[in-house]
Amino acid sequence: MAQKRPFNEGRRHFKKNKKQKTAAVEGSSEEVLLVDVRRLLEKARVGDHEETTRTLPEQWSEVELTINELSSTGDGLAEKEGQVYVVPFTSPGDCVSAKVVKHFPEEGYTLTDFLSVKTPSQHRTETPKCRYFSQCSGCQFQHMPYSYQLAHKKTIVEKAYANFSGLPASAVPAVGETIGSPLQYGYRTKLTPHFDGPPMARKDKRAGKKVIWEEVPPIGYMRKGTRKTMDIEECPIGTEAVERGLRRERERVHREIDKYQRGATLLLRESTERVRKSDGELQGSVDGKMEATDVVVEDRGEWVHRKTCITDHKATSTEYVEDFRFDNPAGAFFQNNNSILPLVTQYIRENILGPAKSGNEANGHEPAMKNLIDAYCGSGFFTITLSQMFSNSIGIDISPHSIESADQNAKLNSLPPDSTKFIAADANHLFSAIDTTKFPPSETVVVIDPPRKGCDQNFIRQLLAYGPERICYVSCNVHTQARDVGWLVGGVEGEDGAVLQGLYEIESLRGFDFFPQTSHVEGVAILRKKGDGAAEEEGGNGQGVAADSDRTGGS
Ligand SMILES: C[S@@+](CC[C@H](N)C(=O)[O-])C[C@H]1O[C@@H](n2cnc3c(N)ncnc32)[C@H](O)[C@@H]1O
């Protein structure tokens, strides 16, 4: 059985500092960093570093370090005399100067501020496009070539499964190459910069006084390693329409700051109006030019896309992915990098039914997968883009607002209501609501795309009890994904304490780069029920379950 153990793994080996009673959140950066620190210390053969007597440099002193490796959190790690120094904005091989910020002696690491490069690594080849790079906490990788970023993200997936799935290496297939984003800058369709209230705002408010702004505060993102907001005038990972919106919103806040009683988060969400070129009026005014101050016009073959930036949470934003249209309240969740979405949907279509049952060929195979259940469906992105492959599709989301949008989106895309349905419900109660005569598990594929914290253990138990033929697990946190997949493959403790056997094997695993220049990677894992053609595929396309060799390579 795959245990809950892996998420404690990073801490288990360190004596806890008495003051640090709070456990790190499962799958959090802190947890992931701890595991990488411990692995590096093991590699450096430091042995029991808790017993090592080390003299650590004083806080705020400057240290010179050579970066050994990149952590899954995107930070450089440098081992020196039995202590790991965490240095942001660096690459393996960099020799850098850094300022000591905080020691965690029990855990064996020290947080630092990056100061300067003494000798650059061979992976430090790019000139960052953002003038705030190495101060802003948003991006970590602008100094590295894109191919290196993609290769690193593959190792993040590998390490996640090696360290957090609780599975033997033989149960984890070779991780595929990371699929890159067609746009590596100018891709983010949503940004949410913020500003803080004046220091006395709370006290003034309690005293019934009007809040006084002595100056316009910085509007932007957190300065790396601090809780302070830094002023950001431009963000080159945002789309052009969003960049325009940022400038406009900043000007507005500068004009209207006195209307605010406290700090605020601003919304910048791209919205697209699609106009057929033959409709005339826009012909000739295309090719990414600004048609008017706030409108970016893009040539899309027979269409013209007019892109604007919405700042009202409740206003409707429209996005096109392939030929599907999605309308959402601008403040609601929708994927943030439209350029990569067609690659993801295409990949899932090609793999969701398995190598022999892809796409339209599926109907010729028995048992054909006729049904789709999209747990955590949001406004219907996967249900709608995949529904043409299935006779019945159902999407479930806990947010009634998302389900309203999903219903609306199904209509916008002319999907028949008798075959594509959505229900507002907790995924934990999903399987009691499913009619198994309509959705027999042997003919059903389940797509899972939960929030960063992953699935509830209860959901996993119910999924195992239902036992769909295939599962496609999409996740923005490959660490919690690895834990959940570990349970589906290796089994999980039932509510009564008895072991529920794992039913699945991992057919394929790879990352998609939804967020270039950052350390985030979206994982897509395809699982099939054990015994469903595993043998015939082994050794076939290199994506089958590995033979008994250590291929996860996470340590
Ligand atoms: C990462 S989003 C994915 C949305 C969708 N698949 C998409 O691509 O647009 C996660 C979704 O899970 C939903 N969610 C969170 N907890 C849930 C639960 N217990 N049951 C059902 N849905 C939940 C959220 O409302 C959110 O829409």
Provide a descriptive summary of the structure in words.
The protein has 555 residues and is of the alpha+beta class. The protein folds into 3 domains: 6-134, Nucleic acid-binding proteins (OB fold (Dihydrolipoamide Acetyltransferase, E2P), Beta Barrel), CATH 2.40.50.140; 158-183 and 340-537, Vaccinia Virus protein VP39 (Rossmann fold, 3-Layer(aba) Sandwich), CATH 3.40.50.150; 190-329, no CATH class. Helix content is 23%, strand content 25%. It is built from 12 helices and 27 strands. It has helices at residues 6-12, 29-43, 146-164, 201-206, 240-256, 341-351, 381-386, 400-412, 430-433, 457-466, 478-490, 534-537; strands at 62-66, 69-70, 76-80, 83-87, 95-104, 109-119, 176-179, 190-191, 194-195, 220-222, 229-231, 264-265, 268-276, 290-292, 295-300, 303-310, 316-321, 324-329, 371-375, 392-397, 420-424, 444-448, 470-475, 492-493, 499-500, 504-512, 522-529. An 8-stranded mixed beta sheet has the order 7-26-27-23-22-19-20-21, sandwiched between helices. The chain has a 6-stranded mixed beta sheet with strand order 1-5-6-4-3-2. Strand 22 (444-448), helix 10 and strand 23 form a beta-alpha-beta unit. The two termini are 21 Å apart. The relative contact order is 0.12. Mean pLDDT is 87; it is low at 3-22, 283-291, 357-366 and 534-555.
